[in-house]
Write a structure and sequence with these properties.
By secondary structure, this protein is mostly helical. It has one domain (9-202): MFS general substrate transporter like domains (Growth Hormone, Chain: A), CATH 1.20.1250.20. The chain has nine helices and no strands. The protein is globular. The protein starts with 10 loop residues before the first helix and ends in a 10-residue tail after the last helix.
Length: 234
């Protein structure tokens, strides 16, 4: 859609759209601070624990390519980008739930180590890959003026989220297990919900109609009220 056709949105919608950056960075700060010490306390070596971020990076590359293609062709009635914001949020939520259940019920050390490694890998990869649909959503529902305002505001929200995540983690520490990660995870999920509800998004079918309508009106106008342009001969 032409940026000139997108109307300026009310400020309250921007307030709903912004916090996801802070929620994500708060979650990142908490998980990055806790993940390696917690995994080493459960018998994993430091090099193996660090492998979480290598595995998350590799998976993020593949995930970006696959999700990028799927989102371009997504036929969901709520739009092309928001379903993937929801998907990555659910991936984080499910991973947190599995980590919590493993703390309560898993007694086998090897199984607990595997769950920790996979859980933190999915969380880190999902937070990384979220950036693509989140940015595409921003670029498609806001005009250029609003985009600049939101991108400038993202710096504040990102810093605020990172500071909050580090502060909460420092107050609890590893003695409380993964509690800081769970708290920041709940905050991230809340901010993701607000983001998805912030601005309506056109579906692929609606986008197709919007792109076709100008051509239809031009053809109708040319046939009814205007003479067709003369063919130029060279």
């Amino acid at each position: 859609m032409d940026q000139r056709e997108i109307e300026k949105v009310p400020f309250w919608r921007k307030l709903l759209h912004w916090p996801i950056v802070g929620g994500r960075d708060a979650m990142w700060a908490a998980s990055s601070a806790i993940a390696i010490p917690y995994m080493t306390s459960h018998g994993l070596s430091e090099s193996t624990a660090m492998g979480v971020y290598a595995a998350a990076g590799v998976w993020s590359i593949a995930n970006d390519l696959i999700a990028g293609w799927l989102s371009e062709n997504c036929t969901s009635p709520i739009g092309r980008r928001r379903p993937f914001i929801i998907y990555y949020t659910l991936a984080v939520g499910v991973s947190l739930s599995v980590l919590y259940m493993s703390e309560l019920f898993v007694e086998d050390l090897l199984l607990a180590q595997i769950i920790l490694f996979i859980g933190f890998t999915i969380i880190d990869s999902s937070l990384w890959t979220l950036e693509a649909p989140k940015t595409s959503y921003l670029l498609e529902v806001f005009n250029e003026s609003d985009q600049r305002q939101i991108m400038n505001g993202n710096v504040f929200w990102s810093g605020l989220g990172g500071c909050l995540g580090c502060f909460i983690t420092s107050q609890f520490g590893i003695s409380y297990g993964l509690l800081p990660v769970y708290i920041m995870g709940c905050l991230f999920i809340l901010t993701s919900i607000l983001n998805v509800l912030s601005v309506p998004e056109l579906s692929l079918k609606e986008l197709s109609l919007v792109s076709i309508l100008p051509h239809i009106s031009f053809c109708v106008g040319g046939c009814v009220g205007k003479k067709p342009p003369k063919e130029k001969r060279i």
